[in-house]
Fold this sequence. Notes:
Elements: H1 2-19, E1 30-31, E2 41-43, H2 45-53, H3 57-69, E3 75-81, E4 85-90, H4 92-103, E5 119-122, H5 134-152, E6 157-160, H6 168-187, H7 191-194, H8 197-213, H9 215-229, H10 233-257, H11 276-285, E7 289-292, E8 295-304, E9 310-316, H12 324-337, E10 343-349, H13 353-365, E11 375-381, E12 384-385, H14 402-420, H15 426-446, E13 454-455, H16 458-461, H17 469-486, H18 502-511, H19 514-524, H20 528-547, H21 556-579
Parallel strand pairs: 5-6, 5-10, 10-11, 12-13
Antiparallel strand pairs: 1-2, 2-4, 3-4, 7-8, 8-9
Helix pairs in contact: 1-3, 2-3, 4-18, 6-8, 6-9, 6-10, 8-9, 11-12, 12-13, 14-15, 17-20, 17-21, 18-20, 18-21, 19-20, 20-21
Bound molecules: arginine (ARG).
Amino acid sequence: MKKQLIKLIHRRLAPIFSRYGIEDCSFIDVQVPPDKANGDFSLNAAMKLSKAAKCPPRQLAEEISTILAEEKDWFSRVEIAGPGFINMYVADGMIEKCLNEHASSTDVLASDLQNPEKTVVDYSSVNIAKQMHVGHLRSTIIGDVLARVIEALGNPVVRQNHLGDWGLPMAMVIYKAESEVANAERSGVPLEEALPLARLEELYKAATAECKENPAVADACHEYLVRLQQGDQGLIDLWHKITRVSMAEVYRIYRQLDVKLTEEHECGESFYRDMLAETVAEIRKTGSLVESDGAQCLFLDEFKSKEGNPLPIIVQKSDGGYNYATFDLAAVRYRTAKLGAERIVYVTDARQALHFKQLFAAARASGILARPDVKLEHVPFGTILGEDGKPLKTRSGENVKLAELLSEAVEKAYSVVNEKNPALSEDRKREVAQMIGVGAIKYADLSQNRNNDYVFSFDRMLALNGNTAPYLQYAHARICSIFRRAGIDADTFQAPVCISQVEERDLMIRLMEFGQAVVAVAADLRPHILCNYLYELATCFSSFYDKCPVMSCEDEKIKASRLAIAGFTRKTLARGLDLLGIAAPREM
Ligand code: ARG
């Protein structure tokens, strides 16, 4: 509805603007006033135009509102407020008409994107031989939502799991794991059992400690690294085996989280290993590489140390090796040249903010981008805190393992389901508990403004009241049960909608705001905008359902309309939850 309204306003106001010498009024937007008493929409065009038109805003507002008031189909009232705001009250008939049109499209999102952008979303990006801990949770689930949302709007999306799977840490694990792999293979024990991810992590930690204490081990690991880089077949085989064992566990978690990453999205640092020298050579061509203490560096004006000294971006270390930034430079080059990316979104915690600032500046300054106009965006996020306000840790101070967190949430969700609906079959209870437990963890994260730290609390995230996944899932299940009890198919039911009470009107307006919320998520890369929208929608539905009886309504036309509104609310909730990667159970 908002889009149609803006179109109308642009068309009707163009002659006024043109009279004041302004030919393009596409910058005019409408706002939704926080207080409903100020109308359904408001317009600040008069204030915006005033300066250029050299005309007081009130006078312009008079002119504009007179024109708009002629649109009787659209508005029941148009009023001037304050210094020159124009408040618009949409006619009920127009709301009905717009929702009827909207409800007839096959997808409630009904995106009409004009310029699709090929978008790479770099997320999860776990490290091999390290367990995924809660720190990876945020990148994985935020990134997954962003990929889903950007894709749903009609942009081609390439998901990239930029694994930490190359370099010295890998050489160290291989060095330590070599004999254990051989033993396992000799005795026929599957590698996943003999060397589970937890064991690989132990080996890596042991190697780190030994390298520090014993220079001979450090040398040996370095030698392994050189052999690995030179493509020594034996080591490459080991590297491959360790990577697969490690990723097998990661995929178990992805499946549990319903995250859409598969092997085809793996494009780790190892993938770029043969492009690094070339990338550095390409950067050298621009003449901007400077040798500093033997390392090849880029110095960009915008990066200074606290003391004001130039801060280098190292692209090749003094020993000839490459670092995190070099891999990323090779990756950004590849993504623009080979993947055709027009937008690249990187989802990592906020501590990497400087790295990405430097990466983006370096990529632009060094001319390695096949598309210089590519949008490069870092999506930083805060830390998950324990109830004590410190980063979430187990009692013994270890990082909390994601797998354990998920099973605990599912266990707790089981009690919620059991209490709420004891009549469900045992299998169904388990199934629903899975949806609620996992949904609760994901939603608790997604519903926060991602820049903030947040406190992890099972009790809060599993509550059936408040801005939680179970609350939304329950609203969805409740609508399903209305239809079930009436013996009507919720998915296919259609009827013209009409307004007989204000709660219907409010809900109908909300329903039409879904697309805007989704567009805002894709633009700002903030999933909580969609969470807030869905929460408000569910709250609005709740008031509607309190005040507007559905099945007991005697007027058949109103009854059908209310069912249609409920059905459309269900579809919108389900679609929204799906974009958040959260299941919408039909009963719970
Ligand atoms: N593997 C890295 C880490 O765990 C994250 C990689 C993020 N993506 C990137 N292109 N740098 O810290």
